[in-house]
Amino acid sequence: MTGKGTLTPQERTVLAGELALGLLEGGKLENALARLATDAELRRELADWNGRFGALFDEVEPALPPPSAWERIERAIRAPAGASNVIPLRRRIGFWQACTGAASAIAASLALILLLQPNTIANPPVVEQPAQPQSPSMVAMMTTDSKHPALMASWNPQTQMLEVEASAPMPVSKGRSHQLWIIPADGTPRSMGVMPESGPMTAHVSTDMADKFAEGAILAVSDEPAGGSPTDAPTGPMIASGRLAKV
Amino acid sequence: MTEKRASTDSVAGESAVGRQVLIDLLGSLAAGDKAALAPLYKRTSAKLYGICLQLMRSESEAQDVLQDVYITVWKRAGSFDSSKASPITWLSVVARNKAIDRLRKERLQTVELGAASEVEDKRATAIEIIELREQSGRLSSCLEELDEKQRDAVRSAFFTGATYRELAERDSVPLGTMKSWIRRALLRLRECLEQ
Predict the structure, then answer these.
(1) Of B46, B78, B128, which Cα lies nearest the Cα of A122?
(2) What stretches in chain A show pLDDT beneath 50?
(3) Could you tell me which of A234, A207, A122, A86 has the C-alpha nearest to residue B133?
(4) Which of A157-161, B26-30, B96-100, B149-153 has the lowest mean pLDDT?
(5) What are phi and psi of A240, to 5 degrees?
């Protein structure tokens, strides 16, 4: 079985079983993961194998963990901005000032956003882009102040599609919204629009904005009034940010 | 190994009420309610710690993995689909996968890093989104129908989290032989379970 070409049903059954059991490593694992991102049938078979092997867990002897184990978990979850992604206002104002330089520097153009149907699959898609011969696809792992992963963004320059997906719960307070910004090399944030309340954000970016999505550009989410910032610049605290990097 | 109770539709020992409690707790976590983690932990940590110990062999490593597991559950509770999967099976698969990720990372520390560790990170991210569809087939009886070598290979893979290479080394057989045992086993199991 090579990395290319469609799998026969038997090959799919075997590959899914090997993934479920954790038998693969190196190049074979890499190929399998790449297939998983695009082959829904393979994902379904993997789901089936996980379900089939589930019965074997009953053979494992349960064991009580020490009390310290729970204490560590509780501390990790409770940590400031550990699970909550809203950063106190006073700590984050500096970020925007540094980005925008003079207070009057305002983003001139806004990206054209077309919000498409939210993803309805129960399990969010794996972020894995096939290699592009010309412009490379890029991803940004957006983390909170305390470096916890909050969102994953993927950028396809060929289709000019940006997809942003939360990897941790990001509850929005009443009367507020989360707004996405791209901050290219010139340091001026440009609005990418208000994020949907739930589910991933999929946006088609206009051509004149697409060249802002270069390696090293920052994607950031700020906490704004409902409907987004009343100005062309962020007014609320930054919740998460990350740099675009080639896949 | 303990006797597996006869059960086709539900995971052995999981009552309908217990199942619903876990579904509700996972739902609360998905909605951002941190307070749901403690009751979930109380109900499930013995089973999940047992799985971590089974794979990691050392208490301190098993506890490290257990921490990762519940943090992942907190982050990923939204991806659990109660119409497709049993909550305790989903949690168990998260635990097993986290333990395997850890085993892989430890192995990589003794060999060359770079590309190898990159694919393991990809594995950790990809497999964190657990795909799970509950099945009604009888795995134990289908396992019994396999040749001994095929059955032992599958069970060994499941309970130790070994790679093909490790399994082959342990049994002192060529890699190709181990692969063909597992492959035949998987195909025959599927055929048996889909009847």
Answers:
(1) B78
(2) 81-133
(3) A122
(4) A157-161
(5) -155, 155
Query: What whole-number distance in Å separates Cα of residue A68 and Cα of residue A109?
Result: 53
Are A183 and A220 spatial neighbours (Cβ–Cβ below 8 Å)?
Answer: yes
The Cα B27–Cα B19 span in angstroms is 12
Q: What is the ipTM of this complex?
A: 0.88
Q: Which of A15-24, B6-15, B115-124, B126-135 has the lowest mean pLDDT?
A: B6-15
CB nearest to A54's CB, from B11, B129, B131: B11
B132 touching A, CB under 8 A?
yes
A59 and B162 within 8 Å at the Cβ level: the answer is no
Beta carbons of A185 and A224 less than 8 angstroms apart: no
| Amino acid present at B77 | A
Backbone angles phi, psi at A225, to 5 degrees: -60, 160
**CA B163, CA B183: separation in Å to the nearest integer?**
14
If phi > 0 it is left, if psi is from -120 to 50 it is alpha, else beta; for residue A31 that is: alpha
CB B103 within 8 A of CB B157: no
Looking at residue A35, its amino acid is R
Encoded tokens for A5: 């070409």
Cβ–Cβ below 8 Å for A47 and B47? no
Closest by Cα among A240, A242, A243 to A92: A240
Strand partners, A153: A140, A164
Contact A64 B163 (CB under 8 A): no
The number of beta carbons lying within 10 Å of the beta carbon of residue A226 is 11
Q: Write the CB contacts of B80 (distance below 8 Å, at least 6 apart in sequence).
A: B26, B30, B87, B90, B130
**Buried residues in A70-101 as b, exposed as e (16+ CB within 10 A):** bebbeebbeeebbbbbbbeeeebeebbeebbe
Distance CA A53, CA B142 (A): 11
**Are the C-beta atoms of B128 and B72 separated by less than 8 Å?**
yes
